[in-house]
């Protein structure tokens, strides 16, 4: 795969363009589905970028929308071709959250609230191994090893010398006290968090216990933002059997405001680092 082609992002952009053409034509997804003798859910999945789209699909849709400019058709066909290529993560087989990895790979910035554990991009290998094995007790050792490698590979976005991912993490204090693996694993993990938090593009804040009820009480979520104005921001909520992706401006705005409240309720950067350091030292005893 060409290094500058991200299939997930290509699908999103293509889906957005197809939705725009449908709306310009004044048609509903149901009407398009009836014309093409397919399900309405297929049209919806193509437009939201959750499934690959063939060049034949693009040709058929452009026919329904009466797109006369062949340059537009050719451009959309090329995007469809690019969207069917594989990202680096496909080499690891079936990854449940592959759509998210594709988005994260292309994102310019990422804001994360994590109430239970140290977020994946900040995890050490030992911590990641313990978390993945503990969270997937029925998975095979081979599958768990694969997930560990994918998680560590994702971290190249925050260690890249050129255009690293701008990362802002709010960790609930509970994630610092939950002993994952062993006390030694936890000490090394918290020391790793402190080290990464000193990088100019990474910010870590801790939401202390004494805050009580707060804006993130309903659970973990992430907000991904992209450099290209054509790519709308995405709120990602991880689930056990399926994940949720929110892209409507109203939804994104609501979660963004919630995140600002979390940041305001959290310890500042220096206070957070001091708390992480204190707890790390306790694990060393």
TrEMBL record:
One Pfam family cited in the UniProt record for this chain: HTH_31
Cited SMART domains: HTH_XRE
Coiled-coil blocks: none
Highest taxon, organism lineage: Bacteria
Residue ranges of domain HTH cro/C1-type in the record: 18-72
CDD domains, per database record: HTH_XRE
PROSITE patterns tied to this protein: HTH_CROC1 (PS50943)
Name the UniProt record assigns to this protein: Helix-turn-helix transcriptional regulator
Organism annotation: Streptomyces fimbriatus
